[in-house]
Design brief:
It is a single chain. With 193 residues, the chain is α/β, with parallel strands linked by helices. It is built from seven helices and four strands. A four-stranded parallel β-sheet has the order 1-2-3-4, with helices on one face. Strand 1, helix 2 and strand 2 form a beta-alpha-beta unit. The termini are far apart.
């Protein structure tokens, strides 16, 4: 159904990712809006069952990797700050078989992938995903003071989206991304108005 809340844009619809709800929710929304392409958040540890459900909807699929690539050392450091429970998904991501996932992406007809970082893109390419079907779009919004100024996105990306509008869901902030350190730094800076 439609999501409501203070910061949720009007018209935002929920697609539950749980195995029992994903197919039905996707079918409802795909029938309702008839998109040209489906952008779907993905991780290296995603199950084959989920991948087959997402790619069986008769619409081109582009997987979007909203996270980064973390090392064993970064996860060990994160354990000290955010604990085992919150670090576990990143440890599982490190242990995931990227070559097998790339094979699955190709087998089930994934069109392209988008990553937030060059490191994530390079990990996909080194696992066998084509460089020509890999796009890096860092998070954030350009600081445009003049509303007439056009975005400075790379030309190949503009051609890829044919200058049509697009939306990316960035996902929730998490401890391993340093959000708590950033908020603490903001508090310190705010004290020195």
């Amino acid at each position: 159904g439609e999501l409501h809340g203070h910061l949720i844009p009007k018209g935002t619809r929920e697609i539950r990712k749980s195995p029992s709800k994903l197919t039905s929710d996707l079918k409802i929304e795909l029938k309702r809006i008839k998109p040209d392409v489906l952008f779907f958040p993905m991780t290296w540890r995603e199950s084959l069952k989920q991948i087959t459900k997402i790619t069986s909807m008769n619409v081109p699929v582009i997987f979007w990797f909203p996270g980064g690539i973390y090392s064993n050392g970064a996860c060990i450091q994160a354990l000290k700050t955010i604990g085992v429970r919150d670090t576990l998904p990143y440890m599982l991501e490190i242990l995931s078989n990227r070559k097998r996932q790339v094979h699955n992406f190709k087998k089930f007809g994934v069109d392209s992938i988008i990553t937030m970082t060059t490191a994530t893109a390079n990990s996909a390419i080194s696992a066998g995903w084509p460089n020509t079907k890999t796009f890096v779009i860092p998070p954030g919004k350009e600081n445009i003071w003049n509303q007439n100024t056009k975005s400075s996105l790379p030309t190949n990306f503009k051609k890829w989206v044919a200058n049509k509008p697009f939306y990316l869901y960035m996902g929730p902030p998490s401890g391993i991304r340093g959000i708590f350190e950033l908020l603490k730094a903001f508090d310190i800076a705010a004290e020195y108005d």
